[in-house]
Amino acid sequence: MTVMENVPIGMVLTGPQVAYVPVPKAGCTSMLWTLADLQGEQFANRNASLEPETSRTMLVHDAALWQHTNTVEALTRAEVSAICDDEDWFVFTLTRHPVDRLFGAWGSKLLCREPTFVRRFEQQPWFPSKPSSHKDIVADFGRFVTALLDDPTLRRADRHWQPQLEIMHADWVRYTHIGRTDSYAATLTALQRHLQHRGRDGIVTERRENKALIGLANVSLPRRLIESIEQIYAEDMQQLGYKPRRLGPPTAPVSGPLLLALQAIIDRNERIGDLLELARRQ
To answer: In 47-95, where do the E strands start and end?
Structure first.
């Protein structure tokens, strides 16, 4: 079988007839763990994974560890279309408000200096500094948003901030269900109904994995910055039905213990990056 280009990344559960296209920073780690539980994946050999993830939890993204599940990208475009046209299949994804998603991606991947992102982007003028205050975080995030505004190619430099409609291949993939992270339970309910229709007993296991250390509840973003993000992702906003984001004062501002925890994660990730670089030289 010839693997076709321009197909979405995702998992195909043949038995229960479920296909999932993960949108990074839209609950995808949690949903992948739910599907892994459904498939009985054990990931017994996960310690052997060479993927540059910074935790064992994140190794769920290593498709090579899935022993009982196929990947969408291993299919041809025609095969993906055939699944979408089959009413017995549940084809789904989850989306997130673009403002929340972008800050989540920037905070976890760039601000926390995950090794892959340090290697790829550290030399860029918008790469964040090590934060010592709330002001540093807001200023560095603002520089990244400005870079996205000025350089459309940067918007597609990584899937974690690529427009969601592009990741979903919404122009040709026909979804049974497009969920939202702010109503995550509704997606689990829809999946449960499908499984019951297929004669699968049991309850879908809800997993909450890869929790962010900081989010929009911890920062005070200028209104103009929020509007810029919504301009960058205008098509996602419109077609996915997201309204302009309204933010109040932060409920848990970045300071004190939270800032120390953030700095500790950065230190850990930098050390993991050191070890990965040493391994590459062997």
So the answer is: 70-71, 90-95
